[in-house]
Amino acid sequence: MSTQSTVHQTKWWSGGKSPFNLEYGKLMMWYFLMSDAFTFGAFLISYGTIRFSQNFWPDPNVVFNAFPGAGHANLPLAFVSVMTFILIISSVTMVLAVHAGHKGDKNGVVKWIAWTIVGGLAFLGCQAWEWHHLITGEHAVLATTIDGNNYIDMIGQNMGGNPWGELADPALAQSALAASSHETLVHLAHEFPKEGMAAASVESLEKMSTTQLAGMVDVAHAHIREKGPIAFGGYFFGITGFHGFHVFSGVVINIVMLIMAQKGIFQQRGHYLMIEKAGLYWHFVDLVWVFVFLCFYLI
Amino acid sequence: MSSHYDPTKNISSSAAYPEVSFHHGHADDATFRKKVRKTTILLSIITVIELAIGLAIYTIHKGPNPSDLLVLMFKGVVCILTLAKAFYIVSVFMHLGDEIRNMIMTIVVPLMLFVWFIIAFIADGNSYKNLRNNYDPYFKETTMPTKHHGEKHEAAPAEKSGKE
What residues of A are in contact with residue B121 (Cβ under 8 Å)? Predict the structure, then answer.
């Protein structure tokens, strides 16, 4: 209670002191982060607007179901939860670095900042893998030529297309097989052979004709979809990319902090305020991820 | 007032930036560690619950007849849990909760814009969807009342009399 009353008796606006009881740079970091929150907020809200304007939007559990080294296993949410925990833990190590700074503990700051950098790099590595997997992983979709003929196409998740539309009508997909390219049919016959048929090697399939191949594909098993909303790719890569760029710049800032702390610059200054400011930025990156995680992976 | 900081004289942070009137009593190591551990566990538990709900939504979607209301409710719960997570990160990890009230308000009050921002733009997207779904390419806007389909011709003389 006594500390409370001293706070209230302080004449904050009488000059000679910070009315917000904060050092200038730290206050400005707060305002920068607030404006950055509006930037991210505007991106995410515009994504929400487009999503609400569509009759269909891909289910994130169908899109994000891969895990490094797990092949084609269906593991929805698994990899992104790893990424989320990496970021939470790196946020905790940052708190510990800031705390070590308060105590003037140089070795503590260096140790915890180093762990934070490791966490940031691990997160960026995960994101690189995920992007690569989405762009290069091709899925069978029911496409239509200008003349209105259906055929099966193999497309990845990129800016021009999205393979996660609604499940296509099996009868339509079956009839579309005949007009599909030889390469696509080889792939489908290899991955989804009809029941009772042994999965043939790609080499032997490549020698067969398209009609032969078309008869070998189990269309129901292949889960052929229509093309999904194009906007999905732009928003996903745009927003996670912008966040990834923040993580990257956060890692660069933390490396600078690590070098400065190691060289004893903060010790000479007598305070570790710079670590606090870098810490604010790093926590903000974690905070944004919480919302990106919500908007793209959970709902 | 010492405007220049001399590291040989005083190593305390108050001398380095004298504009700060008082320093938050930085808790001793034991209470600090306890607080950080508690917050970390809390954030992890909330994340695990979110993931469980995410998987629940997935199973509902895969099921025979998915209930839209149930999915919507689960999504609402995840949104609330995310806000709770954001609160803990900002107030404990970023120490905003320890700042003075005036400072907290300059950050939090502008963020209230998001209330309007989210509602307005989501409603806009929804309205766009409805407009497109009901789009009639042959619709012509006119000030002349058009006859409704199946209506008898009796309406015409009435209109005439109205003009006189």
Answer: 45-46, 48-49
